[in-house]
């Protein structure tokens, strides 16, 4: 596990420092934050529209780039604002980014949910994957830009990708019903975009998300039968699953992952007045300024600033989140309340340090005991972050089979294996060029500083 931590925090250091390098591709000023961009302001009377209705659209104003510098080859990229619902089914809006590959198969649509894991509206994927996006909040949107490699792998298969800002304009992270609704309404809007994207209105649809992205995808899977029953979804891949928020609260607090907690609490305050009141009233005065940094920061900055902190100690009553009203909020936003009606591929590390594997074991058992169709693949060694990449080939292969209409069989099955980037499956699915880029990153990390092992 120490080796994995050294690799990933070395990778984080490498990516952060490379942002200071001059870019051959920068030719004009930085793009405005979503909070300052008029496109992100909803039109009047949007509340009257049906969920999934397109409210406005534009071509993405800047090229889509990996690691902030290298253009992704596309035949088109669009921002679409659409009507969706918040945690309580009140009308709100979200934006999805539709990416059309160079050689598209307009009959195949993947909804990819990025693990934004932050409560600032300026951390959304629609902004973070553009060239010339501002590198603030501090450390930028590093994780989103790394996950773009997975989107690129999907694009290389000819799949059209839609990737929603499922936290909405408010940055409502961990308001997971909102996230699920936004995913489904993003699919509805994308299928309705035929007149300017060319996507087939009856395209085969799949979903994919890892970690925080698996929460959004997972809630979409659970609410789909009642919220969007007309959508015919061929399957969903859920990696690094985080089904039980309570477990994460206690595993993350006082660890390198402690920054997840203030971001999640602040994200809830966007949808829950009770949590907003707690932030205003219950934070210790001397801790308030530090806590509220999450309103303007993204995932990596929060990890750095809150590493190993006791987040409960920021509050006058450290046990505040054990109160029944807060336990209810946590439970509302945890998975395992409804049975998916579509096939699932769930992949999870037995060594996951963020969310115990036992929580996913329990979730899968609940699904399977109630008739769901699940292939549950447990990795034997990778940590939470490493599996995001090493598990991608298995997920991509499974999704490809769904697009091809191959049978998933019936019932559930559990498998265990080592998943890695160096096995033949990874080369065949991700492609040599993409593997080479990832291995080049690894080489630079190994040759770089190791003081970030923490």
TrEMBL record:
Keywords: Hydrolase, Signal. Pfam families: LIP (PF03583). Residues 1-20 form the signal peptide. The keyword Hydrolase applies. Gene3D superfamilies: 1.10.260.130, alpha/beta hydrolase (3.40.50.1820). One of its GO terms (biological process) is lipid catabolic process. It comes from the Eukaryota. SUPFAM superfamilies: alpha/beta-Hydrolases. The keyword Signal applies. GO terms for molecular function: triacylglycerol lipase activity. Belongs to the AB hydrolase superfamily. Lipase family. This is Lipase.
């Amino acid at each position: 596990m120490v080796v994995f931590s050294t690799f990933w925090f070395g990778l984080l250091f490498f990516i952060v420092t490379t942002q200071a390098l001059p870019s051959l591709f920068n030719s004009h000023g930085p793009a405005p934050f979503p909070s300052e961009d008029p496109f992100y302001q909803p039109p009047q009377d949007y509340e009257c529209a049906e969920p999934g209705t397109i409210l406005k659209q534009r071509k993405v104003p800047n090229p889509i780039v990996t690691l902030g510098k290298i253009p992704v080859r596309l035949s088109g990229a669009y921002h679409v604002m659409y009507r969706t619902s918040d945690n309580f089914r009140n009308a709100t809006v979200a934006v999805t980014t539709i990416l059309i590959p160079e050689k598209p198969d307009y009959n195949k649509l993947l909804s990819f949910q990025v693990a934004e894991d932050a409560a600032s509206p300026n951390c959304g994927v629609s902004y973070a994957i553009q060239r010339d996006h501002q590198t603030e909040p501090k450390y930028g949107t590093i994780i989103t830009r790394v996950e773009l490699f997975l989107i690129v792998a999907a694009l290389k298969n000819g799949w059209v990708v839609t990737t929603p800002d499922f936290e909405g304009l408010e940055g409502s992270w961990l308001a997971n019903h909102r996230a699920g609704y936004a995913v489904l309404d993003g699919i509805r809007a994308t299928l309705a975009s035929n007149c300017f994207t060319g996507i087939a209105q009856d395209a085969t649809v799949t979903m994919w998300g890892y970690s925080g992205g698996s929460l959004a995808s997972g809630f979409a899977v659970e609410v789909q039968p009642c919220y969007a029953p007309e959508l015919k979804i061929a399957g969903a891949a859920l990696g690094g699953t985080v089904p039980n928020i309570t477990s994460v609260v206690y595993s993350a607090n006082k660890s390198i992952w402690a920054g997840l907690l203030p971001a999640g609490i602040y994200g809830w305050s966007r949808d829950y007045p009770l949590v907003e009141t707690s932030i205003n009233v219950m934070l210790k005065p001397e801790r308030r300024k530090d806590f509220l940094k999450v309103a303007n920061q993204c995932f990596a900055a929060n990890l750095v600033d809150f590493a190993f902190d006791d987040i409960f100690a920021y509050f006058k009553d450290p046990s505040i989140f054990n109160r029944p009203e807060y336990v209810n909020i946590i439970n509302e936003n945890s998975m395992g309340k409804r049975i998916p009606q579509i096939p699932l591929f769930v992949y999870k590390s037995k060594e996951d340090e963020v969310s115990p594997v036992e929580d996913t074991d329990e979730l899968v058992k609940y699904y399977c005991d109630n008739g769901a169709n699940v292939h549950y693949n447990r990795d034997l060694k990778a940590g939470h972050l490493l599996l995001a990449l090493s598990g991608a080939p298995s997920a991509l292969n499974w999704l490809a089979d769904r697009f091809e209409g191959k049978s998933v069989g019936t019932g559930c099955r559990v498998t265990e294996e080592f998943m890695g980037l160096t096995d033949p499956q990874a080369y065949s699915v991700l492609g040599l060029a993409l593997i080479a880029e990832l291995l080049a990153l690894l080489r630079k990390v190994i040759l770089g500083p190791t003081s970030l092992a923490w």
